[in-house]
Amino acid sequence: MKKAVTLIDIAKACDTSNVTVSKALAGKSGVSDALREKIKQVADEMGYVGVKSTQNRRGNTIGVLIPSKFINPNGSFYWALYNALVTRLKKENMYCIMENLDQEDEDRLMLPHCIEDKQVSALISLGQLSKNYAKLLNDNVKDLVLLDYYVPSLDLDAVVTNGYSGGYKLASYLIKMGHKKIGYIGNKFATTSIFDRYMGYVKAMIEHGYEVNEKWRIDDRDKRDFITMTFPEDDMPTAFVCNCDEAAYRAIRQLRGMGYNVPEDISIVGYDNYLISEVSDPTITTINVDADYMADLAVMTLMDRMEEPDGKPRIITIEGDLVIKDSVKRI
Questions:
Q1: Is the pLDDT of residue 206 over 50?
Q2: Are the CB atoms for 218 and 185 separated by under 8 Å?
Q3: CATH assignment of 163-289, given 3.40.50.2300, 1.10.10.10, 1.10.1660.10, 3.90.550.10?
Q4: Which of 26, 149, 182, 275 is the most buried (most CB within 10 A)?
Q5: Are strands 321-323 and 286-288 parallel, antiparallel or unpaired?
Q6: SS3 assignment, position 120
Q7: pTM surpassing 0.90?
């Protein structure tokens, strides 16, 4: 049986993004006339058939599962991602149901209600889940996409940022600003994204011949929530790479309570470029993550999976850009 042509196949052939291909084939704005015609021609030549047209997708309900520990009542990066998903799914005439997953239910391997009650036709899992729980979802959901994490031992579709590159960029910027004693804030075993960002930080430090001191790696969370950080009583680093803006914001507040000023005494950088990095005092130098683009890719990946159930799973990685603000001092 001939392998079905997907939007990603067309995107590769046209040297463009699958989001652009989707817009072109759907007749939406944001694509030049020349590129639109090229995409349509390539799609025809490749024999592309949209198995689920917009009309056929109408009424499909997609679940979005978010661990409760990632939901902050004052807002979080995951709220931004969820809102972007709702907007993108609406454009495809699909509904969206969000369900929070408590840690107890994850530990006990309890299926989400939206799956148990067959309320959704596919699922986007937003935020790190354990390998066992991700496997449970994969065994019970026909079409599944992981967003902002991946599970190395499972062949599942996923959309993630390049945390390794981001961690490297942040540490390299601090080094460029004269810092040599640089720590890392984040429980490196909590999520794949935190671990990847940590490894990028480690690469930059080793590359420049600087010490990676385990005493300067500070846990910011346990299995359930953020925790009070335990900083060294002496021999403090001059800067910290934080795994996310929320951790950076909390570190700034805690360090201030200990008598340290940021950036005068200690420099801090974060990750995500979420709202909290702007309301922080000082504003936080960070890596910008395009939530809208991540949501677009997640929905497109899910649609491809729905069109080609037996296709090879893909992990799609997007780059983030360094955004310089006020939380770093040159020394």
A1: yes
A2: yes
A3: 3.40.50.2300
A4: 182
A5: antiparallel
A6: coil
A7: no
